[in-house]
Design brief:
Layout: H1 12-26, E1 32-34, H2 45-58, E2 64-69, H3 71-76, H4 79-87, E3 90-98, H5 102-107, H6 114-126, E4 130-137, H7 145-159, E5 163-168, H8 176-182, H9 191-204, E6 224-226, H10 235-243, H11 253-258, E7 263-265, H12 269-278, H13 286-300
Parallel strand pairs: 1-2, 2-3, 3-4, 4-5
Antiparallel strand pairs: 6-7
Helix pairs in contact: 1-2, 7-9
Length: about 300
């Protein structure tokens, strides 16, 4: 949609007036604010300080301010500027690399490569900001499905976000990607292949801190990933592990890194776990793949 709009920085007085009006209407009911629109982190520090101060005054119950951010704009801020933004209330950045594969990133015109996303994450986390990172199943197409999944898992590990989402690519008519599809130069993987990407992604990434993932229901269901721990734990402890909170079931960093495979918690977790087991591995023979896909179709339809 941003191709149909011309980017401009709104007058600061307009923005502050909007915040004040929202405060009069919603006041104490607001606990979270997302600063929009598409590229707000490009704003100068003076604008940000005024906006964050206005949000704090307008919403007394405010506990989190977040926004979507491009890697290059995080890198474009100095360490001092990022630390100031965090100190004045900007606590969460949504970053959407889409893929960790540089070939795929160039194809989808992301504008930043694998290394730049890692550097942006390092800078943001050093300033004390949390990260929510978004990847797109299918972004590599059929041609680079395996490379996309493996490189995305590697980027997720390197960025080490507090939150992570695996969404499903949608080809929108009128976009450059739709043009490539029309010319036969890009093919979106079918659902079984998307599930293989998801399984590879879950199996290969190795978060060092906390992690929470979800897929769109168009793929299969939501999921949260925690690492295997020794001993038995209550359901409450399992929930804490899946969200990275402290408690008797808290996982260690060493346990997270050394886990042989992820355990899946959360809504619809059992259905997703069964489905992921049914997806045939890439190295499986043709007969095994066909039998596995028939079982998967029967159990998920």
């Amino acid at each position: 949609m941003y191709r149909e709009k011309t980017f401009r920085v709104r007058d600061l007085a307009e923005t502050l007036a909007d915040v004040e009006a929202a405060g009069r209407r919603y006041g104490r009911s607001v606990e979270k604010v997302v600063v929009a629109d598409g590229d707000a982190l490009v704003l100068p520090l003076a604008h940000w300080r005024a906006i964050l101060a206005a949000c704090g005054a307008a919403f007394p119950s405010l506990r989190r301010v977040s926004r979507y951010a491009m890697a290059r704009n995080v890198i474009g801020k100095t360490d001092e500027e990022l630390a100031t933004l965090r100190a004045e209330g900007l606590s969460l950045l949504y970053v959407g690399p889409g893929s960790g594969d540089d070939v795929t990133l160039k194809r989808i015109a992301k504008g930043q490569d694998h290394a730049e996303h890692v550097e942006a994450a390092r800078r943001a986390k050093r300033a004390g900001m949390a990260l929510s990172v978004i990847f797109l199943l299918g972004a590599g197409g059929v041609e680079r499905s395996d490379e996309h999944a493996l490189a995305s898992a590697g980027l997720a590990t390197a960025m080490d976000p507090e939150y992570l989402s695996a969404l499903t690519l949608t080809v929108v008519p009128g976009t450059p990607l739709a043009t490539l599809v029309g010319r036969g130069r890009f093919e979106l993987p079918a659902v079984p292949a998307l599930l293989r990407e998801l399984r590879t992604f879950v199996a290969e990434r190795g978060p060092r801190t906390r992690c929470f993932g979800r897929t769109t229901r168009r793929t299969i269901c939501r999921w949260a990933v925690g690492c295997r721990t020794t001993g038995r734990a209550s359901s409450r402890s399992s929930t804490r592990r899946s969200t990275g909170e402290s408690g008797s079931g808290r996982r260690s960093r060493e346990g997270c890194r050394s886990a042989g495979s992820p355990r899946i918690h959360g809504p619809d977790a059992a259905a997703l776990q069964r489905t992921l087991r049914l997806v045939p591995p890439p190295h499986a023979g043709r007969g095994l793949r066909q039998r596995a896909l028939r079982r998967m179709h029967w159990r998920t339809r």
